[in-house]
Specification:
This protein is mainly alpha-helical.
């Protein structure tokens, strides 16, 4: 299947991994990192539920209106969750004079 692909040698030097900084991230940076990735975890969970809902619709267990309402509610919930996270981040950073 992939036999038609051509591979080119770009002659790009390998990354120098010996110059990676050894500084530990601050607690705030770690908290921000965790919050950012928690959104992706929530997104995957919601995506799985929406997919399951539409599979149930396809199999005839629920109707299209119900599947649409569930999908809309899931999207609204996700947006609310993201907004709350942004509000917390902004509130925490405004007092410190930094919006990193």
């Amino acid at each position: 299947m992939f036999s038609i692909l051509q591979v080119e040698d770009l002659d790009v030097p390998a990354a120098d991994i010996t110059s990676v900084p050894q500084d530990k991230p601050s607690t705030r940076e770690m908290r921000n990192w965790h919050d950012d990735f928690a959104v992706f975890d929530d997104l995957r969970t919601i995506q799985a539920e929406v997919r399951k809902t539409w599979e149930e619709c396809k199999s005839g267990n629920i109707d299209q209106v119900t599947a649409s309402v569930i999908t809309s509610a899931a999207i609204i919930d996700l947006v609310r969750h993201i907004e709350e996270g942004l509000r917390r981040t902004i509130s925490a950073n405004i007092g410190k004079g930094s919006m990193e």
